[in-house]
């Protein structure tokens, strides 16, 4: 009685209940023998688009990691070692910090605060090299928003994935090749001297890393975003977005003219050819049996 | 799988509006008002018929102005630190409303857990999650 009433009061106005007699979580018995409660299934609209990174082949992944590591070692590690020693007292202080972009701000402050006599200056040892890179999710995001990047590399072993998932759409909209490389953070972070590197970007006009960028770009698979795909289908890894935009504008102009002439049929035809309508995706959920619920207004309290 | 889902047409309408909003923004990034209108209609339908939406859909819609959030175009997304924890903050550019998501590697939405899926009813072990305890 109790649970049934409870169920009724909570979901009385929800018309979408599909009852299924199945192995259901046992309702807390109220004395009477009741076998199973009908299992309510909630249907919810699932996202028709699935945004995911494209898979990277193993050899490409090893190649990319290897080239990056070598390059960082040859350019940076000798110089940035001092910073590594400096950072340890910092890391102990700020325990909550993990994002590398934030650390750099701190390091630069320290640089100004403590003009050390010895060569172990805290901070990046080669500032001009550092300026050609965008390290850290926030920095990469900002650079992508301003379209300053040539290549974006993202670490794949990120939990939760929401940290970097927005970069997919961003980089596709700017036609910047990007890929997810597992273990990026594990390999590159110690090389540079940071705690973790979740995203890495090479700015335009980078002189030191131009070779690496050119070597890596052909190996990066193209990203798939369903609604933006038709815009960028032929570009592949090209960075000439303006050209594409012009072409698209021409196509759009012609299509609009036609739309105005023939109303319905043409519109449907154009839509069908341009972007395919994704099928409806529905997710069926079983409600959480452990869900915290407010005690019902009746006196039968549920202890929280 | 239950073939006849109630309000299937309503769901199809929601899905269509959602995709149409994306297409609009893909073709004309300036015309955000139309995308906002589509998403507003979608929200109204869902509200009127009490249709449930997946969190992945809800997170891309702004709750204040119901515009479609596309990072880089209509919203910004940053990692921020607050009180020792790391959050992902999504800010809508039109109404400046921000959403915060905690970056907890152990957290998994109920909808993504395997025991929530209809096919896995047998595995209905009560998953101990930090946010719930069984009603006594």
TrEMBL record, chain A:
Q: Which GO terms describe its molecular function?
A: ribonuclease P activity; ribonuclease P RNA binding
Gene Ontology cellular component annotations, sorted alphabetically: fibrillar center; nucleolar ribonuclease P complex; ribonuclease MRP complex
Q: Which domain of life is it from?
A: Eukaryota
The family database entries (InterPro entries) matched by this protein are listed as: Ribosomal_eL30-like_sf, Ribosomal_eL8/eL30/eS12/Gad45, Rpp38
Residues covered by the Ribosomal protein eL8/eL30/eS12/Gadd45 domain: 127-201
Q: Which GO terms describe its biological process?
A: tRNA 5'-leader removal
A Pfam match: Ribosomal_L7Ae
Q: Which SUPFAM superfamilies match?
A: L30e-like (SSF55315)
Name of the featured protein: Ribonuclease P protein subunit p38 isoform X1
Q: Which organism is it from?
A: Octodon degus
Automatic annotation (TrEMBL), chain B:
Residue ranges, annotated region (Disordered)? 113-136
Look up keyword Metal-binding and say if it applies: yes
Q: Which GO terms describe its cellular component?
A: nucleolar ribonuclease P complex
Look up the domain of life of the source. Answer: Eukaryota
Key words of the record: Metal-binding, tRNA processing, Zinc
Query: Which Pfam families does the entry link to?
Result: Rpr2
* Single GO MF descriptor: metal ion binding
Example GO biological process: tRNA processing
InterPro entries assigned? Rpr2/Snm1/Rpp21
**Which family, according to UniProt?**
Belongs to the eukaryotic/archaeal RNase P protein component 4 family.
Q: What is this protein called?
A: Ribonuclease P protein subunit p21 isoform X2
Q: Which organism is it from?
A: Octodon degus (Degu)
Task: Give the classification, highest ranks.
Answer: Eukaryota, Metazoa, Chordata, Craniata, Vertebrata
- The gene it comes from is Rpp21
């Amino acid at each position: 009685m109790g649970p049934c009433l409870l169920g009724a009061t909570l979901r009385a106005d929800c018309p979408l209940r599909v009852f299924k007699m199945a192995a259901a979580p046992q309702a807390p018995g109220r004395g009477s023998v009741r076998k199973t409660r009908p299992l309510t299934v909630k249907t919810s609209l699932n996202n028709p688009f699935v945004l995911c990174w494209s898979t990277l082949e193993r050899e490409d992944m090893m190649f990319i990691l290897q080239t990056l590591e070598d390059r960082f070692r040859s350019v940076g590690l000798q110089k940035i070692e001092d910073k590594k020693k400096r950072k340890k007292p910092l890391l102990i202080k700020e325990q909550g910090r993990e994002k590398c972009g934030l650390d750099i701000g701190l390091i630069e402050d320290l640089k100004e605060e403590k003009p050390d006599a010895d060569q172990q200056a805290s901070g990046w040892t080669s500032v001009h090299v550092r300026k050609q890179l965008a390290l850290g999710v926030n920095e990469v995001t900002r650079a992508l928003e301003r379209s300053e990047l040539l290549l974006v590399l993202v670490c794949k072993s990120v939990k939760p994935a929401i940290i970097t998932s927005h970069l997919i759409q961003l980089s596709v909209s700017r036609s910047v090749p990007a890929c997810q490389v597992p273990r990026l953070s594990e390999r590159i972070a110690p090389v540079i001297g940071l705690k973790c590197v979740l995203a890495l970007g090479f700015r335009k006009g980078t002189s030191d890393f131009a070779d690496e960028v050119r070597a890596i770009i052909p190996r990066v698979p193209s990203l798939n975003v369903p609604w933006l795909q038709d815009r960028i289908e032929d570009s592949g890894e090209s960075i000439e977005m303006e050209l594409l935009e012009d072409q698209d504008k021409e196509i759009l102009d012609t299509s609009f003219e036609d739309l105005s002439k023939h109303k319905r049929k043409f519109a449907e035809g154009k839509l069908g050819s341009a972007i395919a309508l994704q099928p409806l995706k529905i997710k069926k959920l079983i409600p959480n049996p452990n869900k915290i619920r407010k005690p019902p207004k009746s006196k039968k309290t549920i202890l929280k | 799988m239950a073939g006849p889902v109630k309000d299937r047409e309503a769901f199809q309408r929601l899905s269509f509006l959602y995709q149409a909003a994306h297409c609009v923004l893909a073709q004309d990034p300036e015309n955000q008002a139309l995308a906002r209108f589509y998403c507003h209609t979608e929200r109204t339908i869902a509200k009127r018929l009490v249709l449930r939406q997946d969190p992945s859909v809800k997170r891309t819609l702004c709750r204040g102005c119901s515009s479609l959030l596309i990072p880089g175009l209509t919203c910004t997304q940053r990692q921020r630190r607050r009180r020792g924890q790391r959050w992902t903050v999504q800010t809508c550019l039109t109404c400046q409303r921000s959403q915060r998501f905690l970056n907890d590697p152990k957290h998994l939405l109920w909808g993504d857990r395997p025991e929530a899926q209809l096919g896995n009813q047998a595995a209905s072990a009560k998953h101990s999650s930090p946010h719930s305890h069984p009603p006594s």
